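Re: weekly structure request thread

Next one in the queue (197 aa):
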Amino acid sequence: MSVSEIEHLISLLAKLPGLGPRSARRVALHLLKKPDQIMLPLAEVIQSTASTISNCDTCGNLDTIDPCRICADEKRDLQLICVVEEVADLWAIERTSAFRGQYHVLGGTLSAIDGINPNDLNIETLLERAEKPEMKEVILATGATVSGQTTAHYILERLERIDVKVSRLSHGVPVGGELDYLDDGTLTTAINSRRPF
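Done, posted below.
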């Protein structure tokens, strides 16, 4: 591996969340010290994952099958949908085992500054799912950020014409907080003490 290849590796690693140039250098050196034990198996897994993982057409989760394992699970409550911003939020709630319904990943939040409007998010398919006769409740689990709240209010307005209960996460989610950074206990409390929106 030439110096330019090492620098290219470092620059790609530096694009990962939480890794700046210094951390990326440390990770690259660690990988290069153990190519057979870490670097080559990691490269194989990354390549395999890139070719087999896709978004679930039903909820937007990432999986190797479509529909994903959560949507295909017959033990899930088909009367509940938990609406989240990103797949990381779905995984965070799923990690708590506090929710046994379905999910719906929006793919972001509304943001006039960033030019993200309702057509850029997975909202229309949410409305279609909410209209199904078996659907009883939609839980809006967007973050307690300005864009998360704006998105939740927009969805609430769109759901008003549908005969479905709409609730939102409650206690434990701090204002300005993002779900992926909360501990399991906080998320469990938030799911269990949700309230009407």
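The chain has two domains: 3-52, 62-196. Helices lie at 3-13, 21-33, 35-52, 69-72, 87-96, 124-130, 146-159, 184-192.
Next request, please.
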